[in-house]
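LAB NOTEBOOK - FOLDING QUEUE
OPERATOR: T.R.
BATCH SIZE: 2
PURPOSE: Compare the predicted structure-token outputs for two unrelated chains run back to back under identical settings.
PRIORITY: normal
REVIEWER: second-year student, initials M.K.

ITEM 1
FIELD SEQUENCE / FIELD STRUCTURE:
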Amino acid sequence: MAAPVAITDAEIRLVPVATRLPFEYGIVTLTRMPHCFVRLTLTIDGAKTTGIAAEHLPPKWFTKLPDQPIDEEIEIMIEVVERACTAATEATGETVFDCWEEIYQAQQQWGTDSPHPPLLWGFGVTFVERAMIDAFCRATDTSFADAVRDGSFGIEPGRIYPELEGTSPGDVLDEPLDQIRVRHTVGYNDPLDERPADAPEDGLPVTLEENIEQYGVDRFKLKIGGDVDRDVSRLRDVLSVAEQQLDDYAFTLDANEQYDSVSDLRNLLERLTADDAVDGFRERLLFVEQPFDRSIALTPTVGDQLADWEDAPPIVIDESDGELQSFGRALELGYAGTSYKSCKGVFKGIANACLAAERRAAGAECVISGEDLSTIGPVCLPQDLAAMATLGIEHVERNGHHYFRGLSMYDEDVQQTVLSAHPDLYRRHDDGFATLDVDEGVVPTMSVTKAPFGFGGELDLSAYATPETWNFDV
């Protein structure tokens, strides 16, 4: 049952985390970033409770501004989280969804008058949204999947997309998945079959070949960079490794906004389709993710060019999905879908899934993909998987376990908490640290769907830095 919600306090804590391998996306290569925790104190139906959320603060993804200093970008991300927390403590609602909507509108009013794009100011709202969801589930002794489907959150998709008036998530969502297939990220410069001399000796795989052998992955997300000749060469090399090791595999392409035109992307795909050295390219290609810069991606010109491309693969937006109705706009222009990412919003993602279900029922191809911004535990990854499983997304880009050394950045108490709460999802590595347990290319989701909202444990955040004491010492 829905219950009145009021937020009385918000706490922000920051932990510096370092990658074990460089993580490349778009215009930046990351080797370190802050991991942010937000804990809210709520009164739900008169009883006090707390909820938690967490996420990386990844420079350059939200803005793609090449000249803005990294430290400045991190300060801005902290600012949008702080502003959302302030808005949260001023909000009340008859349901969690009501409260979220009030916070979103307050953040939108502030963000519209700021230099920040919607994708960035909306990021702050997603922290308080997830922490509210967690608190509600804990207070009412329910799981996220059950609360979404039985209406306890009060989600009304019609308040985001008017054409969904009168529908509810429970109308279109089945029982949550009990496992999800891992779609392994292959960065633009990630090693393929030869381990570099400077590769970390940390007990985890480095090359694509090693990841296939150790984890059994057969779904891949391949990064491309906007230079057609170079991308053709790189994809030939990547797919050659997959072809040598796997009989059955599939992949997606992610350009991170690096293509300037539809014609260039079309040239890339046509060359690879016709290439005798690449077996079954178009049959194995599941979709292309955000190929075009957000400044042009949702323009009528791109829409017209997509309409003229008769045999185009499914193309989904990601960075262009900055506002609540962006997915609807993309569908009107001829895109096939959008990505679900926790950093773009849970309720927004649920509404998008409802809209996609309506379009599929009418006979249209419509994709909600599951993507990862190097998500890691202890909180963010289980919450993200709980949402993916609830939405029925069968394969999800998972890369945090590859670019980070499990949960080794946290103390033993945190690692043991996660291992105890999620023994199906995490395992103790031979070297002693907790790490994601990927077996035959899948991760189980039973423990995360039974938990309140993904994470089934309790955390003490007191040892972590506040925004005032934060520094980048790793």
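ITEM 2
FIELD SEQUENCE / FIELD STRUCTURE:
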Amino acid sequence: MNTIRARTRLLVPVLAAALALAALAVPSDAAPARGGDECPLKALDNADGPVEITFWHAMTRANEETLIRLTDAFNSSQSQVQVSLVNQTTYEDTVEKFRNALATGNVPDVAQLPETFLQQAIDSQAILPVQACVDADDYELSDYLPRVIDYYTVEDTLWALPFNVSNPVLYYDKNAFIAAGLDPEQPPETLEEVRTASEAITASGYPAGYALKIDSAFFEHFLAKSGKPYVNNGNGRKERATEVDFDNKQGREYFTWMSEMVADGLAVTNARTGASGIDNYLAIGNRQAAMTIDSIAGLGTIAQVLGSGQFAHVDLGVAPMPGPVDKGGVLVGGAAFYIMKDTSDEKQAAAWEYAKFMNEPENMAEWAAGTGYIPIRESAVDLPVFQQRLSEIPEFIIGFEQLFEGKANPATAGPVIGDYLGVRSAIDDEITRMLSEGTKPKVALKAAKKNSDEVIQNYNERVGG
């Protein structure tokens, strides 16, 4: 098994100051983490009674209901491990609480941490690489979607076991399309087609055609669909990323499209919606717009809300994310299971058993059917529970198809960035300024690059990169 290499550097001075700057750190005088990178699979056999572990997650509504149901099934299926779920509300809250827990040593045994956390997880030296358990257990990965495994693999080491994987899709109201004279079975496939459809929808009486959610994650996916890496050094996978690479033709195209959609009254947006905002969905429900782009992970919940009750007038349609075709593909979003290094052998072995159970094809099929997350095991797609869901809502397959059919290249492998959320925040700030203050797209993009580069460089300096 590969051990932690160059990017797994000991993070030195003053932990509190580093945490205040939003970088994970391990104090230089801390005792070495126990057990190195070995996965103690046999530890459960020597445990006295069931091993109790804590799992931090950030699921809500239909997603949390399904997670609880599957965890209860795991707990009742055997007598060696009992899992307690702790809801940390959002990914951002989970990451922040995890940072704070590193300072106190009060970390969970396993945590659901987002795709944006990968580099920080490596740098923290607090994670047992899942590769250790894969190797020790002869665990077979061939049934997983290759691009999902590739995302969490850095320098030949799989750091986390993927679980809830998502990517963006287009949500739209078929009834609004019909009223605007559009074919509801032919949704837009490009940004220009989104604009054309928005013109027709606005002309039919809607305040806007499109609800624009300010979340730079969609910008990342657009560039990946364009086949363009987000950061340098092989998207941060050959060496640590030192600057962003998005101030280019494709970046200007996306910023210009957003700016003109809002300026021309074809898109409605809030000053800031953020990753967890739902105002773009509500805009469809309230007839303020007829389309939006958001994560497929919300499909289970959105299907519960739109089309029923006060939103019964909505006939929800779902389609692939509009953008360039045949050049790249959407990225791997969502989160994965991270097992902690600084915990007992028994708890590490227990965490691995739980992660494996949740990823068994039958459970992955149930997870995908109940939430909208992508079934990342190819065999899970054909199982009855998921096929039944597809018979009810065929669009549940779209996220899977986008990953399965997308090209595998450095752009679609996904960026590995230290302060990833800091970069997103810097870009969101400039998008917000552009849309609310009229900053020219080219100027906003250059400012986004400048500020993002500063975030990356500040993080690298803090960790010695």
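REVIEWER COMMENT (ITEM 2): The chain has 20 helices and 13 strands.
FOLLOW-UP: none requested
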